[in-house]
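The passage that follows is intended for readers who have already worked through the single-chain material. We present the inputs for a multi-component assembly, then the predicted structure in tokenized form, and finally a short commentary. You are encouraged to pause after the input and sketch how you expect the pieces to fit together before reading on.
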Amino acid sequence: MAKRVTDKPPPPERRSPCPVACALDVFGDRWTLLVIRDLVLGKTRFKDFAASPEGIPTNVLSERLSRLLEHKIVSQVSASEGSKHLAYRLTEKGRALLPIVGAMRDWSLAWEKGTLAQLGEAAATN
Amino acid sequence: MAKRVTDKPPPPERRSPCPVACALDVFGDRWTLLVIRDLVLGKTRFKDFAASPEGIPTNVLSERLSRLLEHKIVSQVSASEGSKHLAYRLTEKGRALLPIVGAMRDWSLAWEKGTLAQLGEAAATN
DNA sequence: TAAAATTACTTGTTTAATGCAAGTGAATAT
DNA sequence: ATATTCACTTGCATTAAACAAGTAATTTTA
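Having made your guess, compare it with the prediction:
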């Protein structure tokens, strides 16, 4: 029988075709969205992510960056002119996560005491 | 010295005062937001959550429901008139998670192939 | 330019979380 | 009264996370 679109199964690493479940398969853990947050706030280097107050272990950071590269949510570029050090940047797909991070920020500020809005994250409001 | 607002530290289970980090402390795992999704879609019973296609283990479901109750994101009510079985409902705080779930849904539908919008989730669009 | 420091990791080990199968007692249905 | 469903709990195997060190390749400093 010929393939039909409706026959297309979800990739094996995906728990269901539900878009919410898919999103959680990609970034549903305690660390990935914090790296995204840092990128939104303008951080670009491994050391910058590692220096964030939550204290992500470097092995976890390394693994998460690999996953984000795989999913084309971030890309690598040279840190500066002629440098061999790398910088990470959000791709368009990565920037499309901004409404999610913004909605999470808004929810916590509205409902969880002791959370504080950071300066420089005005972009997350839209 | 008298207490000042700026002296108030985040609760010990919170990694930082960042609202994004706080949100992840509350529901930053592979399962919690799927339960929220089910609640948004109108499911109310333990067995309904357990029957979702992603196949949440019952011990995990049990633990997650406890946490959601603790955080006052869901509440328990009688499943039906005079019944001793329980139903779960989103509180106002829980319904405030809708924009997050909706943004995740929109992102996956836009960027991840093979995801499918479900009927009955029109409410998540706003 | 040689030495010191930084960067971006990796490796090994401990600890916690997740996943799975099975079991249980109360509630409901037959 | 018996069977079935419901909402869990328990025990165990597997996987992931956390923590501490170490390392090779850069970059900075003396």
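Commentary: Chain A has a mean pLDDT of 87. Chain A has one domain: 16-112. How closely did your sketch match?
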